[in-house]
Amino acid sequence: VLHDCFVFDCVIHAYNLSDANLLDRADAEIGRGSILKLGLDTRAPNSALGYSSFARDWSDAELWDLVFARSSTDLAMAQTVPIFDWFRDGFAPVASQHRFAQAHPEQVLFCGGVDPSYHGDAVLEEMHRQVEELGARSFKFYNAHIDDKTWRSDDETVAYPMYAKARELGIKVLQFHKGVPFGNQNMEDLRPNDLQKAARDFPDMTFIIHHLALPYFDECVSIAGRFPNIHLALSGSLGLYFVSPKYFLRLLGQLLAEVGSDKLIWGSEAALMGCPQPYLEAFWDLQIPEDLQEDYGYPAITPEDKRKVLGLNLAQMFDVSLPGRAAS
Amino acid sequence: MLRRPIDNASGTSPATLSGRIQAKLDGRVRPMLQIHGGDIELVNSSPDSVVVRFHGACTGCPLRPLTIAALVEPSIREVAGSATVDSGTRVSAAAARRLAKLAASSRDAASHIHTALVASAEHAQHCSGKE
C-alpha cells in the first residue's frame, strides 16, 4: 500500500525476450530491439535493480521480486502480449502469465490474449480455453502486424466474433495496445480510431486503450472523452515523466480535464520498465504545475484523483474487494 | 451509446426548483447542445447546489468549460440564484476566473442586445402606429 493508497497495476508482463523465443528471420532482432530500446530509453533511474539484461525469459521469482517485494503494488494483472511476428510464443506468452497468476492467486489476475492472424480458425476455441481452463479475466489484443496480417478492431468479420465470444464467456473488459508501434510495423495501424465503432456496437463491453495511443494522443483523448465504455491505461507512460516531465504533465493535465480521473488506470509495464516503485512515488508526488493551470486551464490533481488512478478504478472494473484501509 | 436519450422534464413540475431548472435547460440550453450532437441532464438540485451531466458529443469536447460558463450556468442561475453548479467538468482556478469574467461580459452583452431589441421593437411599433 502506497501512502494508504491501494495500488492495482493493470499491466505487468512475464516476458520471454530470450534468443530461444526469437523466430529465425532477419527482422526479428529489429522487433525485439525496439521493445528493449523503449524500456532502456524511458526506464526510471534505479528501477532496473541490477538486472543487466531484459532480453531473457523472466522467471516468476524475478517478476515477483520486481513488482511485489520491492514496490507498493497490492494487485496486478499479468497480461499476455499476442505478438507473434518475431516471437515463437509471443513476447509475453500465455503460459508465462498464467503460471505467474497461478503462483500468486491472491495478488495476480491473468489476462489472456489471442490474435486472429496467428490462431486462425481456432481463435474462438483458444479464447474458450484461456477462460475456462486458465481463468482469464480479460483479453489483450494487438492488431498491427507485418506480413499483411494487420486487422482492424472494428472489423465485423474478424474482430466482432472475438468480442461476442468474450461476452459469451463472461468477459467484460477488452484491452488494446494502441500507438507505440514495435519494430517496423505501420504506426497508423495502431491508431485508436477503430475502437469507436466497436465501442458503439458493444456498449456492454469495456474497452481499455493502452499507452495513451501515443503519438495519437489527441484522438485518444477525444475518443475516451466521448465514449463511456472506453478507458485509458497509462501503461508505462509515466516513464516520460523522468525524460520530459513538463511534456508528461501536459498530457496528464489534458487527461484530467477532458477524460477525467474516473477513466484513467495505472499500468507499470514491469518488467520492461523496471520496478514500479519509482513511478508510483513519482505519481503520488507530482502536481500539475501552476503555469499549466494558468496557460492551459488544466485542473490541479488531487489525492482522490491519484487513488482512483492507482487502484480504485480498476478494482471497480474487475469487482475486486479492497483491503481494509483502502476500502475506508 | 454515444447519444443517450433523455426525457424532457419528466416528472418535474414548473412549481418546483428542479422543474424550473429543467424548463430552462429544455427551453434554452438543450436545443443549443442537441444541434451538434450533445446534451445535458439535470441530475439533482437543491437551493445550494445543482448537479448536471453532459452527454453525447459534449462529453469529450474541450470547449465544455466555455459552454458551462457562457450558457449553462447563467441559465441555471436565472432560476437557482447563487447555487453552485457541478457539471463534472474540471478546469484550473485560473481558467475558472477567466471564464467567470467571460460569463459576466456575456451577460452584459446579452443584456445590451435584449435592451436594443426591445428598443428596436418599440421603435418599429411606434413607426407602425404612425402609419
Structural overview:
The complex is a heterodimer of chains A (328) and B (131). Chain A has helices at 28-42, 60-69, 94-103, 116-119, 123-132, 160-168, 195-201, 217-226, 239-243, 245-258, 277-285, 290-296, 303-317, 324-327, and strands at residues 8-12, 75-79, 108-113, 138-141, 173-177, 206-210, 230-233, 264-265. The two termini of chain A are 13 Å apart. An eight-stranded parallel β-sheet of chain A has the order 1-2-3-4-5-6-7-8, with helices on both faces. Chain A has 14 helices and eight strands. The N and C termini of chain B lie far apart (58 Å). In chain B, strand 2, helix 2 (64-80) and strand 3 (84-86) form a beta-alpha-beta unit. Chain B is of the alpha+beta class. In chain B, 28% of the residues are buried. Chain B has helices spanning 17-34, 64-80, 93-130; strands at 38-45, 49-56, 84-86. A three-stranded mixed β-sheet of chain B has the order 1-2-3. The A-B interface holds A 199-200, 203, 221-229, 256-260, 288, 292-294, 296-300 and B 1-2, 56-57, 59-62, 65, 88-95, 98.
